[in-house]
Fold this protein.
Amino acid sequence: MAGKCEDRDKLNPGKGLSGILNGLADLVETLGKLEKDGLVEINERGQLGKKNIKAVYNYSVRMGLGGAPETDTPAQELNEKKPAEEDVREPIVDIIPEEDHLLIIAEMPGVEESDVDIRFGQESMFITVDGKNNGRKYRKEITVEGLEKPVKYTSHYHNGIMKIKIMKN
């Protein structure tokens, strides 16, 4: 069952901050009516404006389990940082096949060459930096087809760029 608030004309866009606060008071009043009447959903959108100042609003409220209001607004906080288990970055990697070798270029700024660990698996290469010196951590698994053991490679790190040449057999 869906209900819609028809009495939103109370909001006077010409009153600036007081108009906004009145609009919020109307929203709270509407939510109370919504709960009282047992309605499940309310949707509202519109525009406010005077001269060169214009605003657009859009909101949707749905009643969830137990009558607790759930709100869905399109303008959510953009700067929210979700808590991460670990701040491990994945380096940007380019893989360039050459005639006699495979060139892998990985961008890992802010680390030292001695912190970079390169290991090889069955058909994979692993680049790991555990950030012992500066706290930056990187991890990347790269699939390399046709890896033959023992793997012959050279690496060079300069200004945040790791170049790895894997020789073809």
Observations:
- Residues 6 and 116 are 64 Å apart (CA to CA).
